[in-house]
Specification:
Helix content: 40-55%
Strand content: 15-25%
Strand order of the largest sheet: 3-2-1-4-5-7-6
Order of helices and strands: HHEHEHEHEHEHHEEH
Number of strands: 7
Structural class: alpha/beta
Largest sheet: 7 strands, mixed
Length: about 290
């Protein structure tokens, strides 16, 4: 059973709310995501959420169009999907208009079984047949037979700590054309910096950047994303880093968009290695693995 859609004259006749909901969007979905109130209205909080949704969508829509033009169908994996907020919005705004015969699919990867079940039930209720939900960790999904051998777009929004790195590992092994990442709670590098701090401080004056505990945490978070970008570049991706303003309720708003261009970037690979060596983070080389020499 398909849900009702927003009529072309918009959801209400109130001038303030015109053009804020796109024609054709699912009212039931917007209510489930708490973007609309139960009576189908927009309040101040829901209007803010809607702007956030469209802000994110403007980054992903061009990538979807590019893949669709090249291949005729799009496969997208959303890691750490949670309630599949992102996947449902993408499907509602883009995938559902592709037609029943189109083989495009969104895969939501989530470890909490109750959220997987709830997302599956909602997709069935909305008639979103091109959505699948899998109870897997990010690491497990890399070898899962439930996913295709090649994926076009990989997203990971606020995947905590090393889950973002697992998503990158997945995307590299699945030969993804695009990655859209919003990292969160980077703790692994900061913990390693604390362990190696004594030796690093002796020989590297820049270690003052992480000598104090609060600086260790902040520097660890910053350098984690720097290393991720260098890793992606070394594997042949063109990387753009920007800010995802006001998304959700998090201060972690750094958005990394990567597009595969091919080849190996030796300069970025060397920079990554040099940074690991100079900061005492050589134990993390497997995490930020480089492409095999050609």
């Amino acid at each position: 059973m398909k849900s009702a859609s927003v009529p072309s004259k918009h959801i209400t006749s109130e001038k303030q709310e015109k053009h804020e909901i796109r024609p054709g969007q699912s009212i039931e979905l917007l209510k489930e995501l708490h973007i609309l109130t139960r009576d189908g209205k927009l309040n101040q909080d829901s209007r803010r959420k809607l702007k956030q949704v469209y802000h994110l969508y403007q980054f992903i829509e061009p990538l979807l169009k590019q893949v669709l033009e090249q291949k005729g169908a799009v496969s997208l994996v959303d890691h750490g999907a949670g309630k599949s907020y992102l996947g449902f919005i993408l499907y509602d705004l883009f995938f559902k208009d592709l037609g029943k015969d189109n083989t495009s699919c969104i895969y939501g990867i989530e470890t909490r079984d109750e959220l997987v079940t709830k997302s599956h039930d909602l997709a069935v209720r909305l008639g979103f047949s091109g959505m699948q939900f899998l109870n897997l960790s990010v690491a497990e999904s890399t070898s899962s037979a439930a996913l295709p051998a090649q994926i076009d777009i990989v997203t990971a929004l606020h995947a905590c700590n090393t889950a973002t790195d697992d998503a990158i590992d997945f995307a590299l092994k699945k030969k993804a054309k695009f990655m859209v990442l919003v990292p969160c709670c980077q703790a692994e590098v900061a913990a390693e910096l604390r362990k190696t701090k004594g030796d690093a401080v002796k020989n590297n004056p820049l270690s003052e950047m992480w000598r104090h505990p609060i600086h260790t945490r902040e520097f660890g978070s910053q350098i984690t994303n720097v290393l991720r970008c260098l890793q992606l570049e070394s594997h042949g991706y063109q990387v753009r880093v920007t800010e995802l303003v006001g998304w959700e309720h998090s201060m972690k708003n750094e958005l990394i968009v990567a597009e595969y261009k091919g080849g190996r970037n030796n300069k970025s690979a060397q920079r990554l290695t040099d940074i690991l060596n100079s900061t005492g983070l050589t134990n993390l080389q497997p995490r930020f693995f480089l492409p095999e020499p050609s």
